[in-house]
Specification:
The chain is an alpha+beta fold and about 350 residues long. Helices cover about 45% and strands about 15% of the residues. It starts with a helix and ends in a 9-residue tail after the last helix.
Length: about 350
């Protein structure tokens, strides 16, 4: 569907569902992200605006394809998860229209200020204020979703060992072999899978909660000085530290080491312990898994989706992993072996 046809369809929505038959409409395409979804801002002559999400036909990320969901969702996951989260009092957008056949959703517009924009050039003192707000929202999210709803698709899928190991392999394939044009030696590949598999075992043994899956600075919007939550359609059961790692080890905004540890401690004061592991250890193990995956994913997005804009964030991701390894002496064999294939970690 081209933009002219989309605008004609939206005129029907505005006249009917939104009850504004006399409003003049304009449509502006918004900057995309790493997904295949396309976003527009629909502006009306009365000054109101809405976000239009256009869903692609038959597209899904590879990780979504191997998520252990037994049956096809009965409805669009974004719609199902949005309804569930809104019922739990969380700040997610109102959905005004769903046309599943056309792959169109019309949503509440939270504006243009992302959390990333607010904190990017801020001082540590200002960042501390906003990151604590984000952690407060995360703790609220975790408490609100602690009682499962078996009918919600988010509770029917999980970060199991298969998915966690697939993401480690994704880094080896794209973050090493594709990015650097090298082939990992067979013996090294077997050892790497054994060692990363041990991290997976530790992660699946942690308390499993409903994780947003991408709780980071580009998916938190600031409107009227309040935070609002987006991009939750891939929510699933996963390890307790997952969303905190996504927030504090965000590839787009690098925190100072002192502020990082202070914010991890702040979160610990709000949330349950990570089972038998010290929370910092659990956080660092999750950092290794998540940020290696991100480094590989950024290459995949470039080579497969034709979007090179995320490549510049690979150094941050790899630096986070190295810092985490520095607090994980038991993982030194894995770090040493990976260092053969990660030039950024080798001394000049």
């Amino acid at each position: 569907m081209d933009e002219t046809s989309l605008l004609e369809k939206l005129k029907t929505v505005v006249a009917g569902r939104l009850k504004k038959p006399d409003a003049a409409l304009s449509l502006a395409k918004l900057q995309g992200d790493a997904s295949y979804r396309i976003y527009y801002r629909l502006s009306l002559s009365d000054g109101s605006s809405y976000i239009v999400m256009k869903l692609p036909a038959g597209k899904a990320s590879a990780s979504e394809e191997i998520t252990n969901l037994k049956t096809k969702p009965a409805e669009i996951p974004f719609v199902a998860v949005d309804r569930f989260l809104k019922a739990r009092g969380l700040p997610v957008p109102e959905i005004y229209e769903v046309d599943e056949a056309a792959g169109i959703l019309v949503l509440e517009d939270f504006g243009d200020e992302t959390f990333e924009k607010r904190v990017m050039d801020a001082s540590d003192d200002a960042r501390k204020i906003w990151y604590r707000k984000a952690i407060d929202l995360l703790a609220t999210y975790q408490k609100a979703t602690s009682s499962p709803d078996a009918g919600c698709v988010a509770y029917q899928r999980s970060f199991d060992a298969t998915l966690l190991n697939w993401e480690f392999d994704h880094f080896l394939e794209y973050g090493v072999e594709t990015r650097l044009g090298v082939k990992i030696q067979e013996d090294d590949a077997r050892t790497l899978r054994t060692l990363t598999g041990r991290i997976t075992e530790s992660l699946v043994a942690l308390p499993q909660i409903l994780v947003h899956r991408d709780f980071q600075s580009r998916n938190l919007m600031i409107q009227n000085e309040e935070l609002h939550l987006l991009d939750f359609q891939d929510a699933l059961m996963g390890p307790l530290p997952y969303d905190l790692v996504a927030l504090l080890r965000d590839s787009y905004v690098a925190l100072s080491p002192h502020l990082l540890l202070e914010l991890v401690s702040y979160y610990q004061g709000l949330s349950p312990a990570a089972g038998s592991l010290p929370f910092q250890t659990a956080f660092d193990l999750m950092t290794v898994q998540r940020k290696l995956k991100d480094a590989g994913r950024f290459v995949y997005i470039d080579r497969v989706k034709g979007n090179p804009s995320f490549l510049k964030h690979i150094p941050n991701s790899l630096r986070y992993v190295r810092e985490a390894f520095g607090r994980l002496p038991d993982q030194k064999p894995l770090f040493d072996l990976l260092t053969r294939y990660v030039p950024e970690w080798r001394a000049p």
